[in-house]
Amino acid sequence: MGQNITVRWKKDNVPPQEVVQQILVDYLGEDSGCKIDEGENGDWLVSLPGLPSHPMRSIHHGLQVTLQAERWFEVSLLLFDREYDTWGRGITITHRSQDAFVQAVIEGFVQTLKTYYKARINRGR
Predict the structure, then answer these.
(1) Which structural domain, as residue segments, surrounds residue 62?
(2) Cα–Cα dist 43/46, whole Å
(3) C-alpha–C-alpha distance, residues 8 and 14, integer Å
(4) Mean pLDDT rounded to a whole number for the chain
(5) CATH classification at residue 57
(6) Where are the alpha helices (DSSP H) in the chain?
(7) How distant is the alpha carbon of residue 24 from its chain centre?
């Protein structure tokens, strides 16, 4: 199952794109084995080390779980501003069929942005 998490900042508190990317780099750690590739449209594809797993895979041998072959998530920049909206630009973090490890990494990054930049978080499927 996939999820989209949108993080938006108030128009008067929008961090520059480079700052958000540096926060992501610092959050993941320089020697963590994580890799950030920039896509053609400026999105970031974040690859995490290790193979996806399920916490109950060894206990419940008949458990059927669909996971991606690699651990990853994507960060897309939201470049729109609406005059009537007090919330400005932001990012959307997307993952598809990822394990609990990837979800925990994403959640920690989102909470970091929320704490330090007073971001608003919207979760969707």
Answers:
(1) 2-124
(2) 10
(3) 8
(4) 81
(5) 3.30.70
(6) 17-28, 100-117
(7) 9
Residues 6+ apart with CB under 8 A from 98: 52, 67, 68, 71, 72, 73
Assign 60 a pLDDT band (cuts: 50, 70, 90).
low
| Contact residues for 22 (Cβ-Cβ < 8 A; gap 6+) | none
pTM confidence score: 0.82
Q: Cβ of 48: how many Cβ atoms within 10 Å?
A: 20
Q: Which bin fits 71, alpha (ψ -120 to 50), beta or left (φ > 0)?
A: beta
Residue 65 has pLDDT above 90, yes or no: no
Q: Between vectors from CA 5 to CA 42 and to CA 94, what angle results, nearest 5°?
A: 50
The structural domain count of the chain equals 1
